[in-house]
Amino acid sequence: MFKKLFSRKSTPVIVVSGLPRSGTSMMMKMLEAAGIPPLTDEIREADDDNPKGYYEFERVKKLPEGDVAWLPDAQGKSVKVIAALLKHLPDGYIYKVIFMNRAMEEILASQKKMLENRQEDSKVSDEKMAALFEKHKQSTKAWMEEQSNLAYVEVSYNTLLENPISELHKVNKLLGGGLEVEKMAAVVDPELYRQRVKNNE
To answer: Does pLDDT of 44 surpass 70?
Structure first.
């Protein structure tokens, strides 16, 4: 819940966030299916790692440099902002954040596969990377809790693929209700669940 609303803008920016390879692109596609337009530039094309597209907006990467002039156009739309960049979102807007969680083993496996596809090597062990990711996630959640102009909900990628309706009801509530969750759930494509870890939560 919002502690107070001091934004000069009343239409929220819908932010899809999370660690890398945590299902943010799928959530963007779900929101699009529900009628929420995505803010994208289509610069990054679909590939073997994300066959249905990345739904990215390159200027988001320039948030640390102060490039925020695109925010007015993001109101009422969904935009991907990775967890590392959330803290650079400026005051003056209301943000509703859908924070994607995924089993850490799957994140690491998916990221490793993506690096292999690009013929790159990771210089950090899985154990160290998992610890860094977990620390970063907890720090980001603590920061979101402190923001008076931001509300968020956590969505499990793993549960989303097995029982989408239950997770999507949380998204629907965050965004004020009225979303057609059945249309959103229809986006799920089990064929793309390629880094499945057995018995994950």
So the answer is: no
